[in-house]
């Protein structure tokens, strides 16, 4: 099969130009005399890659100077464990707003030394909405408030129509899991204490995670922890407390550069609007043949879960899609149905091809 339009939720599609560049660099990196994966992370060649990547991430995401940028292994889930260790002291309350599967996963990473307050949850309605900010039961002296900016499985995202994409938490730092929506639009990082994102959706390959932290938070004592789990130690060692995933870091750098070349986050904001509108319109105009149950004010622009009215046709839909060159559409086992992940590397033409296929499938099975 030739390269298809890949709607996989993560690991996800990468731009073809990035893959071609990586293919070329795989054998020989510049005049290093070896592949980029074969050289020391502390040598001048890789240090240059790391420095350029950080500079490009800072440009792409408009990272203010008083924020540190870390490139760490362990995925987003590990950060969900390290954030409470680094930023909350034993006995302190931490506030979590749960709007889907990943917000719930974050709760499992807390140590028993902390006092968890679920300030709001949409679980009762099947994670189809985001509770109104006025209904959040926040704690005045919480260590932080944690939200999931975009719920990858449930397809729920903080959007302006809900209120403010960055909810006001007054003096309590806002910690946000941006794994599946980072770089899809400009964000005002100064509204957040910590933003973290596994790379494998919008930023590049799996195996590396970006953590953006307001520097003053790094002065917090946190809880007793191993050196390896200490964000300040990572920062002081240029995110190289141990041998970092150099290949993943380098690929992330190529992907970030590609996003800058394409016009940056405002351009991806525009494309995300266009792509998600195409898809939601196709679902909503299908006369109930396809269905998305999320509150329209918070429908994700990155992950679009949808269901066929007649679920006995799911397999036929998936195999027909595959024949049409559309892959990665099977929904997560938690929800079932279908899901189209339309991250930055998915062109508008890919979503158009999906919408065309959906219409054809409906016409022949309606
Ligand atoms: N948070 C969100 C929003 C996610 O989508 C995912 C992965 N799909 C995770 C956390 C967990 O990420 P990882 O597998 O990198 O630990």
From TrEMBL:
Any GO molecular function: O-phospho-L-serine:2-oxoglutarate aminotransferase activity
Manner of cofactor binding, per the entry note: Binds 1 pyridoxal phosphate per subunit.
Reactions catalysed: O-phospho-L-serine + 2-oxoglutarate = 3-phosphooxypyruvate + L-glutamate; 4-(phosphooxy)-L-threonine + 2-oxoglutarate = (R)-3-hydroxy-2-oxo-4-phosphooxybutanoate + L-glutamate
Domain (Aminotransferase class V) ranges: 5-354
Residues carrying N6-(pyridoxal phosphate)lysine: 201
Cofactors, names only: pyridoxal 5'-phosphate
Coiled coil: none
PROSITE patterns, A to Z: AA_TRANSFER_CLASS_5
Binding, L-glutamate: 42
Family classification: Belongs to the class-V pyridoxal-phosphate-dependent aminotransferase family. SerC subfamily.
Record function comment: Catalyzes the reversible conversion of 3-phosphohydroxypyruvate to phosphoserine and of 3-hydroxy-2-oxo-4-phosphonooxybutanoate to phosphohydroxythreonine.
The protein, known as: Phosphoserine aminotransferase
Organism: Luteimonas aestuarii
Gene: serC
